[in-house]
Amino acid sequence: MFHRAIIQSGSALSSWAVNYQPVKYTRMLAERVGCNVLDTLDMVSCLQKKSARELVEQDIQPARYHVAFGPVIDGDVIPDDPEILMEQGEFLNYDIMLGVNQGEGLRFVENVVDLEDGVSGSDFDFAVSDFVDSLYGYPEGKDTLRETIKFMYTDWADRDNPETRRKTLVALFTDHQWVEPSVVTADLHARYGSPTYFYAFYHHCQSLMKPVWSDSAHGDEVPYVFGIPMVGATDLFPCNFSRNDIMLSAVVMTYWTNFAKSGDPNKPVPQDTKFIHTKANRFEEVAWSKYNPHDQLYLHIGLKPRIRDHYRATKVAFWKHLVPHLYNLHDMFHYTSTTTKVPPQDTTNSNGKRTGTTKRPPVSTAHSSNGDGEETGPLIVANPRDYSTELSVTIAVGASLLFLNVLAFAALYYRKDKRSRQDGHAGPQQASPQRQSNGNDVSHTTTDESLSHQMTQSSQMNQCDTLHDLHDLHDLPGLHDPLHLSPNMDYTLTLRRSPDDIPLMTPNNITLIPNSLMGLPNMHPYSTFPAGYNSTVLPHSHSTTRV
């Protein structure tokens, strides 16, 4: 029957889009017109006999944020909840263009508090409490939900400003009643690849009927859709339209008619300045991109047009994900309640078809009463959870860790004590050579002097007996005799030796041990020459000692 739709400032997922309590409001109307009978068929027959004017004149006030007479999930025309139908892809064959105005929630705020001088702190708290009571009727978790909403919609940089509270309160109703349902609708429709276009309207005309502080409220885009700025103010739209309003109206009409013709708001007619307005068209260079759940691109319709993404993403996520979690807190925690328990909703229609369970909260029954004053008993309190098992496991794990720590400490202490004992036994043996060395410093010095004198005598003997073989050196007198220190030895030669002189005796011959060193441990032989080298052949055959 139709191929595409333009959804302006509304969605089937809003709380006021579907009547979830049709029987309640039907009986209220029947009572007003004199058809208050118990039998449903008789009541319907009585209502059919009433004139349309009589039925329309009756003022039936629904619960706040709901509708008294609207679409009903009957199982035939509307077989299931709209959100479930969208998730199942029932609207894939239709192109949609949808969007919201910047300040849609003004109509709800005006009916709650006085906005002339802003919103006081008490009025803000009252508006939030009334909102929660009307939409979320459960007593469990209601305080948590209310405080969370107040926290989310408080401008903490300017929390005491009444005008700031007024602005955030309008945003609260706008986000909950229009923005979040529209974004969810666009996501569900676009995820299957169906053509979807999203817009946000940010402009409104100047009128004495509206406060100067208000943004684009509900219905402010309507005169631009129908070209009212081009013909001037009317009784329905008493605005002072400017040239910018005329330009913007031409833009909106071009987008809307293009989408109705082709399903694409960018064609077949492009945005240009060749129209009855004389203001330059600021949308000529703007290409309205398709909406998809990932990028969430949308068109900012205003005097400064641009393509943006993720419209109010934080607030949408708050209402879409966090609030349902907080609303179901009573399923996670057990409370003792003495208030009336909300009866479960019947999801079976008259034809026996079971309808889907809506994800939105049920309508509060605070505005209706059966008149009998009966209240159900307190909710059954669940048995407190037994934490003995968890406590036992915790204690066992802690004791095990403590025991392991004690064992580790004992092992470390044992190793440290054993090492200390080993160091105590090895200490004297390692320290004795040092003590001997320190105690015999004088003897070593004396020995060096004796060796110097002996090497001088050996050099003179070598000069006299150069014809003898080297193997007869051991027969030289005095080499094996005990060395006796001369009491009148001259130490001047030793002290005056040049540090660069060649030693008077090769290291291989330093093997004599004086009598004064007898009894000490044997010294390791020291040799700087390889095996077979004649150590007696020196560069100089004479002593280099200077006197």
In short, what is this structure?
The protein is mainly alpha-helical and 547 residues long. The chain has 16 helices and 5 strands.
Question: Could you characterize what this model shows?
Answer:
The chain has a five-stranded mixed β-sheet with strand order 1-2-3-4-5, sandwiched between helices. It is mainly α and 547 residues long. Helices cover 40% and strands 5% of the residues. α6 (121-135) packs across α7 (142-152), α6 packs parallel to α8 (162-190) and α7 runs antiparallel to α12 (313-327). The longest helix is centred in the C-terminal third of the chain and has 52 residues, at 388-439. It contains 16 helices and five strands.
Indicate the CATH architecture of the domain at 4-18 and 71-332: 3-Layer(aba) Sandwich
Order of helices and strands: EHHHHEHHHHEHHHEEHHHHH
Assigned CATH class of the domain at 4-18 and 71-332: Alpha Beta
Helix/strand/pairing class, anyone? mainly alpha
CATH superfamily of the domain at 4-18 and 71-332: Alpha/Beta hydrolase fold, catalytic domain
In the sheet with the most strands, the strands line up as: 1-2-3-4-5
Radius of gyration from the alpha-carbon trace, in angstroms: 53 Å
| Quaternary state of the chains | single chain
Q: What can be said about the biggest beta sheet?
A: 5 strands, mixed
Estimate the global geometry from the Cα principal axes: extended
